[in-house]
Amino acid sequence: MTLGFDAQKYIRMQSEHIKERRSQLGGRLYLEMGGKLFDDYHASRVLPGFLPDLKISMLEELRDEMEIIIVLNAQDLVRNKIRADLGITYEEDVLRLVDAYRERGFMVQHVVMTHVEDDNSAAKAFRRRLIKLGLSVSRHYLIPGYPTNLDLVISDKGFGRNEFAQITRDLVVVTAPGPGSGKLATCLSQIYGEFARGGAAGYAKFETFPIWNLPLDHPVNLAYEAATADLDDVNMIDPFHLAAYGEQTVNYNRDVEVFPLLLAQLTRLAGTSPYKSPTDMGVNMAGYCICDDDVCREAGKQEIIRRYFEALVSEKRGELEPKMSESIALLMAKVGVSPQSRSVVPAARAVAQQTGQPGSAIQLADGTIICGKTSALLGCSSAMLLNALKYLAGIDPDIDLLAPQAIEPIQTLKVEHLGSRNPRLHTDEVLIALSTSAAHSQDARNALAKIPELAECDVHTTTILGSVDETIFRNLRVRVTCDPQYAVKSLYRKR
What we know:
With 495 residues, the chain is α/β, with parallel strands linked by helices. It has helices at residues 7-25, 41-46, 54-59, 74-78, 90-103, 121-132, 150-153, 183-196, 219-227, 239-245, 253-270, 293-318, 323-335, 344-355, 380-393, 404-417, 427-437, 442-449, 467-475; strands spanning 28-33, 66-73, 82-83, 88-89, 107-116, 136-141, 171-175, 201-206, 235-237, 250-252, 359-363, 369-373, 458-461, 479-482. The strands form 4 sheets. It has a 6-stranded parallel beta sheet with strand order 6-5-2-7-1-8, sandwiched between helices. A 4-stranded mixed beta sheet has the order 12-11-13-14, with helices on both faces. Strand 11 and strand 12 (369-373) form a beta hairpin.
């Protein structure tokens, strides 16, 4: 992989800048963490060299001085919202994050549940579960007119009605499983509670995207718009910063819309605000750590295409109007790419056209594209996986890693005893069969040893993946896109 981002420089600059901001503000600092603190695969895709856990690694330098609050929107429990990159619910992800942070030595004791309503039984049940697990859960309620009704929001009937989390350390990182959780409102509510109790506190934002000192139309910033198309987020020039300093910087609509509330609250509580714009309140140094802009531009373009295919599949599965995909298509046009600009797309479609069956393709780290076609024994994804491993291991492509006599008993088991209508082997079954063959085959052992080299490779299939193949590719950290077509026309689909 060609690097476009300097991770070590980022760790150094970012931790130093947070320390500097703390010293400027004094007292307790609530640091809103935009994006994912852990497993930030979006950042790793659009900034090659940015590791998925880079932000948490950076914060380890401040670990002994900080604690973490995890914020969860109660409405996401009702919607059973899923983290697409991990395939788990936000409810499960809260527990996963608590464990992950604690394993790294961070203090995590508080969960804040926002947008709480009395009739939300799912939120009540999850709150009871968290309390039984020893966590403190604070409830934050909907405030009519938020964020524009300043007199109500900044009052005992607004933020003052929310349950205060009793923090013990002076650097508080506020994070969440995903966007729209209410992190900023949580920070402002906590700050209101600090002042109400005779203390004081400040606020800063650590938002990776959009990157404030990159151009508005930079593909990395437009890729953020594609990633948040379901939230109607829009990148924009920060009007407050332009008015205060005559300088153009990039922010996004939600921060711009809520900035008057932040300004009013800090001014009312502390007598003054250290910030004149949403850009001022940020501490993001990512833009200074890009070491190859061309690499990051191309990565941003490829991410927009990936998000386009994700939207098409989501719309197909949910029979939704093509609102998301249409908005992302406009972003593709802005950066001058099309679905065919993703190299594996035309390759997979060519296989499908030639065979009349689903096709797939993977682009390996050296740029080589390996295809897979559907056969009586294997699905196209399984065939592609085996072909790629043979190439990486230097095995003759005509050699069968799995003999037909090894595959047929698995097919018999599936069809005659497990009730499957599809006798072809899925990717998990292929990998298990390959592992079994490794006991007596050096080629199989060599192929298995190359599995880690599939990570970060691009894949495209001409039909929507089933849940099994989707999970396997996710675990292999392969970047998959699919055409929005089902392999079989049936009304009932097991996900």
